[in-house]
Amino acid sequence: MNNKQVILAQHQKFETERLFFRKVELADKEDLFEYASDPEVARYVSFPVHKDLAMTEESIVEYFIPQRLFCWAIVEKQSHKMIGTIDLRLNGDQAIFGWVLNRNFWGRGLMPEAAASLRDLAFNQLDVKIITAEHDAENPKSGRVMEKIGMRKTGQVYTYMAKEGRSVLCDYWALTKEEYLKAKN
């Protein structure tokens, strides 16, 4: 185990002004199903629309539980509802963002708040040198989140989306530690 994994293990739970972050649990299946079964939410992510709670339960067991160091449930403090997930995957000195949010909570600035907190963790405690992210080019709202946390668009690449059976044009974004520190000062 390396020092970065220890730091991530120490941050299994944390919070921001409006959000609480913790690990995804089987007890989250109803909240996760609420947005994973929404075709508008699933449209831009790699997982298929969830057809039933059993499918959601399987995704928690097969994906979220094994990825506990890198993936958090996003819980709205006011309602105590699990409203999405956010990933920060480490690859050496690079981190890769991923997120999904219940459509009922879009447009409230919650995802920039969540992403900014993990951006700060990555640069200030994990000593990451660059954070990258990608999104379907047809989903500009995700790009706005990236822009709001200081990332800049670096290009576009076609990616094969297995669930779609086709290639999808994706926008790629990045933020270096130098850019982050310069913007802070």
TrEMBL record:
Pfam families for this protein: Acetyltransf_3
Source superkingdom? Bacteria
Extract the InterPro entries matched here. Answer: Acyl_CoA_acyltransferase, GNAT_dom, N-acetyltransferase
Tell me which UniProt keywords the record has, alphabetically: Transferase
Q: Quick check: keyword Metal-binding in the entry?
A: no
Indicate yes or no for the key word Transferase: yes
Q: Which GO terms describe its molecular function?
A: protein-N-terminal-alanine acetyltransferase activity
* Annotated GO CC locations: cytoplasm
Q: Where is the N-acetyltransferase domain?
A: 19-178
- What is the protein name given in its UniProt record? Acetyl transferase
State the organism named in the record. Answer: Lactococcus garvieae TRF1
